[in-house]
């Protein structure tokens, strides 16, 4: 049995001192969906990552010890969880600051779409080494009890990233009916994968105009009838 | 139990059974819904825990075979991919992309391999395979669009693994896709069934976003009912273009600041534009840049059109940003674009200034002018002025804009050059972004502050930082008062009609509000106390409280920057400001206590760096000590000041220090100590904290050791203190521990004062004491002295007891 380190800080970080300009690329590093706990219920349960997808990992540290791969995986999971926790608190702080409750977003009937343009949205930066080797930007959107986030390279087109995140959330809400009580996001990973493969292939943000979006959505609906 | 908990709780034995079931299902000829269901569950089991799940080897192998099976439905392939990717990095993977022909399948395999962390050079092998497939097909091939994101990712992860001919090949292809995609709409995909006869109607030409027939080549802003494959590739190609240009450029992406840049740019303005007629003769990279330039210009032109759909209007904005970013890259790589780009961007800037909806594109434009302004001999000042004076005060409430704006400032610091002054003078405006969005921006400002502050703005900035929560409240008020109330209010809706709304229209407040909400540094300070009063009803707003919580961190960052360069005069100014403002803060719960903690420790830092401060500000410090009406609200500040007087009011720090000065301080502090110890604690007036008492006693003793006439007076006082602490008045509830501390300190100080020369050595050590020599050399130095002193003191104490 391997003794797992308790906190993220004990896990190996390689290239902590690499300047962030080594890969001035512009792609999405990860996408995640996680829970947002109600502000008054902070001590109830934990912030949970419900789904995450890392597009092409950061290079694994050379860790000759046995279970190196396991430690790497653990590190990645902890990194994603660290992002989720930050998004959760950012979202809560923003919501509290606006004097609204998450439930203000709840549509009156289930037929109405969620007013996504009113959902809390924001971005923040993660410094190099905490939790990722390189500097990253996180763009997030909170809808009722769910948080959605894109982890980006720092020079990404933020406007496009924000648009893409809104598009993804809209598609996920529609096609997984995330907000209906019986919907089970956890057991419908194939749909999430299908949406990501089309609208964010390998973490590439796409400049899709309305007709392209419709075309892709039709293609998706044909493969996954609602 | 939720599926989540079930998945996490599943035991190894059960999992093995489940794996066997998955294996059986996957071995079937026809993979049905039960296979989908099983894989969905398996994905959940694997992904729900951060620890690794042990899966049977046969199961892992079958997942890989299924993923690569040509006839496997997409749903299952995606599930297999997701499960394998979730397990990565993993040692038991033997997936290889070496023989994959189908580009869609290669994309799936790649997503598993690229997640492995490149221990076995997976990135290189995926990249090589992707290029093999790319080479083997015509550009019109049916599904190359699945391949481009893989290529893009590989280029991003490991740009060095691509050969030159591969780079050239892709550049050539990108040119074709970008510039020569069909301008006719695609044909709808028919299912090919018996009854669906091909339509006779020809698809029309592609249109612009406003519905007009396209006037020029196809871009991501061209639209139609259906798209051809090369139009899809056009979208992919543009989406990856900037990253590709950066990676494939021989000059490398990260050399905007190298010396050769200015040379290159300086010499090429005369070259002017390379004519595009001969562009097909250019090497692939240059030709791609030429086509990218044309594409950007077309996008800028297309973004003037009025989009019929909201989605297209949003895309126009994102395209504008991307076009400007691309032009920046192009001009960095090949300065001959500069001349053509400048005129285009100037016109664009003029257009965007009047268009609040597209304000985000102003940031990359400003970035462009910062990067190239000097080379192009263009003054970027006006552009920056407009950006810094107008945008933050109008759009501080947009969290995305605020973030992007501050990142722009932070990332552009190295290129601001002589324009840095514009940035610095704009700090009041930048602080609006911070005051409204403090949780997301505090860390950015901690990084930005050292560059933002200089000796000219330090005092004004410190005021502004201390007034930051008040600024948040003022911004909330401003939004409430603004005539154009948005459909969705931007202020805190939980507070309705605060009483200050009407009162704020009073002219006496208008001036102060205008000062607080100024756009640039004014060089003056105003006493904002009346405004604090006015805005008090807003002090409980969550946003104000959040901002108040950020201020101590920001103050720390401010002081650690300022103390690097502050001279004596500035230190004096700042120290005075600390004292003055400690009494005049916006009343937010907890704010004062937290700020005092930082201010008091920073006051001591200033004193330590400039000990003369205490002598020079003697008058003001005396006033401060004498004016303390309530010890409790300013305990930390008072303690710091009293301590600093004891430490630094001495000829050894400043020759100008006189006996009169010492005596005056002694009297003031003595009076203060008398006052705080004699006053009876009551319900309204809690007892004086023992820390204040002990620091006062110590400082009095220190002063007495420097002006020895005072020794009898302080000794008398100390013995009174000791007996007072030993026999507390019956009414006082002073707890034993506090009294004990006061008593011990009084006894120690009394003992020390019995030997005035020792007292002086201990209480006023010379500056040399902090030198390392004193702590290392046991024979000459401090340890020896201390040992002697303690022996003497012990003896004395023994005598006292005996």
UniProtKB/TrEMBL annotation, chain A:
GO CC list: AP-type membrane coat adaptor complex; cytosol; late endosome; lysosome; nucleoplasm
Gene Ontology BP terms: double-strand break repair via homologous recombination; endosomal transport
Pfam hit, one: AP-5_subunit_s1
InterPro entries: AP-5_subunit_s1 (IPR029392)
PANTHER family cross-referenced by the UniProt entry: AP-5 COMPLEX SUBUNIT SIGMA-1
Name used for this protein in its record: Adaptor related protein complex 5 subunit sigma 1
Originating organism: Canis lupus dingo (dingo)
Gene: AP5S1
Automatic annotation (TrEMBL), chain B:
Residues of the AP-5 complex subunit zeta-1 C-terminal TPR domain: 444-792
Domain AP-5 complex subunit zeta-1 N-terminal TPR: 7-274
Domain of life: Eukaryota
GO cellular component, one term: AP-5 adaptor complex
Domain (AP-5 complex subunit zeta-1 ARM repeats) ranges: 315-432
Protein name, UniProt field: Adaptor related protein complex 5 subunit zeta 1
Species annotation: Canis lupus dingo (dingo)
């Amino acid at each position: 049995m391997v003794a797992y380190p308790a906190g993220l800080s004990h896990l190996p970080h390689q290239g902590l001192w690499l300047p962030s300009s080594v890969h001035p690329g512009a792609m999405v590093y990860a996408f995640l969906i996680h829970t947002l706990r109600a502000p008054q219920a902070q001590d109830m349960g934990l912030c949970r990552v419900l789904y995450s997808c890392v597009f092409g990992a950061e290079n694994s540290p050379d860790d000759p010890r046995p279970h190196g791969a396991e430690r790497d995986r653990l590190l990645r999971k902890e990194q994603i969880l660290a992002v989720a926790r930050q998004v959760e608190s950012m979202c809560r702080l923003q919501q509290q600051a606006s004097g609204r409750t998450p439930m203000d977003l709840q549509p009156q009937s289930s037929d109405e779409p969620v007013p996504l343009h009113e959902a809390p949205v924001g971005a923040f930066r993660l410094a190099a080494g905490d939790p990722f080797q390189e500097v990253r930007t996180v763009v997030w959107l909170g809808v009722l009890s769910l948080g959605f986030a894109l982890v980006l390279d720092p020079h990404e087109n933020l406007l496009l990233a924000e648009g893409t995140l809104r598009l993804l959330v809209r598609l996920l809400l529609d096609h997984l009916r995330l907000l209906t009580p019986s919907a089970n996001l956890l057991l419908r990973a194939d749909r999430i994968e299908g949406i990501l493969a089309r609208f964010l292939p390998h973490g590439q943000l796409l400049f899709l105009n309305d007709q392209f979006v419709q075309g892709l959505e039709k293609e998706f609906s044909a493969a996954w009838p609602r | 139990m939720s599926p989540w908990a079930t998945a996490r709780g599943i035991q190894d034995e059960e999992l093995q059974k489940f794996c066997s079931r998955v294996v059986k299902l996957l071995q079937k000829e026809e993979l049905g819904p039960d296979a989908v269901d099983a894989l969905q569950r398996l994905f959940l089991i694997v992904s729900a825990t951060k620890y690794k799940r042990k899966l049977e080897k046969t199961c892992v192998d079958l997942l890989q075979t299924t993923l690569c099976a040509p006839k496997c439905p997409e749903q299952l392939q995606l599930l297999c991919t997701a499960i394998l990717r979730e397990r990565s990095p993993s040692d038991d993977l033997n997936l290889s992309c070496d023989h994959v022909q189908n580009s869609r399948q290669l994309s799936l395999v790649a997503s598993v391999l690229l997640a492995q962390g490149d221990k076995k050079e997976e990135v290189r092998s995926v990249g090589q395979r992707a290029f093999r497939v790319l080479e083997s097909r015509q550009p019109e091939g049916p599904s190359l669009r699945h391949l481009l994101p893989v290529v893009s990712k590989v280029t991003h992860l490991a740009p060095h693994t691509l050969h030159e001919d591969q780079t050239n090949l892709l550049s050539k292809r990108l040119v074709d896709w970008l510039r020569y995609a069909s301008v006719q709409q695609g044909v709808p995909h028919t299912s090919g069934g018996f009854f669906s006869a091909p339509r006779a109607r020809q698809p029309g030409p592609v249109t612009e976003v406003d519905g007009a027939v396209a006037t020029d080549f196809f871009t991501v802003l061209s639209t139609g009912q259906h798209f051809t494959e090369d139009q899809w590739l056009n979208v992919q190609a543009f989406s990856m273009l900037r990253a590709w240009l950066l990676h494939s450029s021989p000059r490398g992406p990260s050399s905007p600041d190298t010396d050769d840049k200015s040379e290159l740019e300086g010499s090429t303005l005369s070259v002017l534009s390379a004519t595009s007629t001969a562009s097909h003769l250019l090497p692939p990279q240059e030709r791609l840049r030429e086509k990218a330039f044309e594409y950007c210009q077309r996008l800028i032109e297309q973004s003037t059109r009025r989009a019929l759909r909201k989605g297209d209007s949003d895309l126009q904005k994102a395209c504008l940003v991307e076009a400007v970013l691309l032009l920046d890259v192009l001009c960095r790589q090949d300065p001959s674009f500069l001349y053509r780009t400048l005129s285009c961007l100037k016109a664009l800037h003029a257009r965007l200034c009047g268009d609040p909806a597209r304000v985000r594109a102003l940031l990359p434009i400003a970035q462009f002018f910062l990067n190239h302004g000097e080379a192009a001999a263009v003054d970027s000042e006006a552009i920056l002025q407009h950006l810094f004076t107008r945008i933050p005060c109008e759009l501080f409430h947009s969290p995305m804009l605020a973030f992007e704006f501050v990142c722009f400032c932070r990332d552009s610091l190295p290129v601001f050059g002589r324009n840095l002054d514009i940035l610095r003078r704009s700090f009041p405006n930048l602080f609006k972004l911070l005051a409204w969005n403090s949780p997301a921006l505090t860390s950015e400002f901690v990084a930005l502050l050292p560059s933002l502050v200089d000796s000219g703005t330090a005092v004004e900035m410190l005021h502004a930082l201390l007034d930051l929560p008040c600024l948040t409240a003022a911004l909330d008020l401003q939004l409430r008062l603004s005539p154009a109330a948005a459909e969705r209010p931007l202020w805190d809706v939980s507070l309705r009609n605060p009483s200050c709304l009407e009162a704020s229209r009073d002219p006496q407040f208008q001036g102060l509000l205008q000062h607080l909400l100024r756009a640039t540094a004014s060089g003056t300070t105003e006493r904002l106390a009346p405004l604090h009063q006015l805005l008090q009803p807003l002090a409980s707003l969550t946003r104000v409280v959040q901002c108040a919580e950020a201020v101590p961190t920001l103050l720390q960052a401010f002081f650690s920057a300022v103390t690097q360069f502050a001279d004596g005069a500035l230190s004096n100014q700042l120290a005075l400001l600390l004292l003055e403002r400690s009494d005049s803060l916006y009343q937010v719960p907890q704010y004062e206590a937290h700020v005092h903690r930082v201010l008091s420790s920073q006051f001591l830092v200033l004193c330590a760096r400039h000990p003369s401060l205490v002598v020079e500000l003697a008058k003001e410090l005396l006033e401060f000590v004498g004016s303390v009406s309530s010890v409790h609200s300013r305990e930390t500040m008072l303690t710091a000041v009293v301590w600093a007087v004891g430490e630094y009011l001495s000829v050894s720090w400043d020759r100008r220090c006189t006996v009169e000065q010492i005596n005056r301080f002694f009297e003031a502090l003595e009076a203060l100590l008398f006052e705080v110890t004699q006053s009876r604690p009551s319900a309204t007036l809690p007892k004086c904290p023992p820390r204040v008492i002990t620091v006062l006693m110590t400082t009095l003793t220190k002063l007495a050791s420097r002006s020895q006439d005072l020794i009898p007076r302080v000794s008398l006082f100390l013995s009174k203190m000791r007996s007072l602490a030993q026999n507390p008045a019956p009414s006082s509830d002073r707890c034993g521990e506090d009294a004990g501390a006061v008593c011990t300190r009084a006894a120690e100080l009394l003992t020390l004062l019995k030997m005035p020369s020792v007292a002086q050595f201990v209480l006023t050590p010379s500056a040399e004491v902090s030198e390392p020599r004193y702590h290392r050399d046991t024979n000459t130095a401090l340890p020896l002295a201390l040992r002697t002193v303690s022996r003497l003191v012990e003896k004395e104490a023994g005598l006292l007891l005996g």
